[in-house]
Amino acid sequence: MSIDPDAALSAAPTTREGTWTxxxxxxxxxxLGAGVDSLDPAELRxxxxxxxxxxxxxxxxxxxxISAGTATPAGLNLPGIDIDLRRILHxxxxxxxxxxxxxxxxxxxxxxVADVWDKGKAAVIVLEQTAMNGDGNPLWTTxxxxxxxxxxxxxxxxxxxxxxxxxxxxxxxxxxxxxxTQQALVYxxxxxxxxxxxxxxxxxxxxxxRPILHGLASYGVVCKAVVDGLLDGDPTRVRxxxxxxxxxxxxxxxxxxxVWRDGDTLTLLATCPERDGQxxxxxxxxxxx
Length: 289
Known about the structure:
Radius of gyration: 18 Å
Number of domains: 2
CATH class of the largest domain: Alpha Beta
CATH superfamily of the largest domain: Hotdog Thioesterase
Shape: globular
Strand order of the largest sheet: 2-5-6-7-4-9-12-11-10-8
CATH architecture of the largest domain: Roll
Distance between the termini: 44 Å
Structural class: alpha+beta
Strand content: 25-35%
Order of helices and strands: EHEHHEEEEEEHHHEEEE
Helix content: 10-25%
């Protein structure tokens, strides 16, 4: 197993065409727990085509389709990168939204290795995707951090040091997001069919008591909570959203998100109250309009 940063960073981007429909958007939102109160107009706007809005985190699955295993761009079949897929973790995720995501549409999606960092005992591969609409204008840019355990030590740059501090004051808002016991089973239909999120026996072999919720589902749940709770239900007010995945969540548990606001910058910390405040998402910031 090896990593050649020069080969990975100099490789030409791969491109594909992606399309999505209102059904895809609605299914994605249902996988985040939207629509539990089907008589609430604030919930219907996420799950009813007549008033449908699109969360920026839909970019994680837009035009992806259903595939087995982890939903990683290019499947890590990348020039200069030969690593054991059993030793990778989805360490972090960000999205920058350049224009409102339409409820149905198409885009040309390009993927490339944007960075490779040497953390000593691990390598971090930053996979960047950019989506362009039919007019050639950007819709979104995402960056996925893949931690490859045991692949560091190649003498590369360690990457930026991102502080994990939250303000030393009470949060301005605390948002509570219950999840349902079947939520992972719904969310996986948006693209990530990894049995870790459905098969109890498989989850036990991976060291979990039972199937866990997708990290990207937690990412979307928190985004929805902030949009509903602080941004008047308007997803177009989100400029960017960046997190690190700090812990697993079992479907049926709660995500509690503390929010500190400083102008147009929100600092977030998502935890699980059922497990004594164990972190779920850390190093989390959202830029808003």
